[in-house]
Amino acid sequence: MTQSNDHPYLHPTRIDIPVEIRVYLIMLLNSTLACTVDLHSHVKQAVWNVKGPDILPLQALFATMATELAAYADLMAERIVVLGGVALGTARTAATQSALPEYPSNLAEGNAHVQALGERFASYATGLRTSMTHATDVEDMGSAALYTDISRGIEKRLGLLDAYFHR
User: Fold this and answer.
1) Closest among 140, 148, 151 to 27, alpha carbons compared
2) 100 lies in a domain?
3) 5 domain-assigned
4) Percent of the chain clearing pLDDT 70 (strictly above)
5) Considering all CA atoms of the chain, what is the largest pairwise distance in Å, rounded to the nearest integer?
6) Is residue 4 part of a domain?
7) In sequence order, what are the residues at sequence separation of 6 or more whose Cβ sits closer than 8 angstroms to the Cβ of residue 108?
8) What's the domain range around 59?
9) Does residue 28 sit within a domain?
10) Number of folded domains in the chain?
11) pTM for this structure?
């Protein structure tokens, strides 16, 4: 089992990724986890507060997006634990660690929520691609594949948000 006294919070694992790289990956994944938890809360804010003629289809779309983000957070947390780390996914951690801008609290109309979520999904997608590159650079194909899979789903939802304005 690989373990280092230099990293007392790293749990033993039989994964043959060097300790220093695992520590780096765990920090990278926890950063993404914070953004994922934060983005989930943004989408829930939209579900709860959207108004207007498209309320029902938008609530359904936003609810689906929230469910997917919760699943992505679980996958991210699982990868962190597999690497011997501790998943840091509380709302307080997300609030202090997320790179996403705060979600506006004064939105009501569907168009405004779609616009705000689109901006945040675009930023999140960029972060996923950057993290995918970092994971690839340290030759962790498992984490890179996770980022790739999540990126595909996020970009699909971003495409739907973009398409909303072109109907």
Assistant:
1) 140
2) yes
3) no
4) 95
5) 59
6) no
7) 49, 50, 51, 52
8) 19-164
9) yes
10) 1
11) 0.93
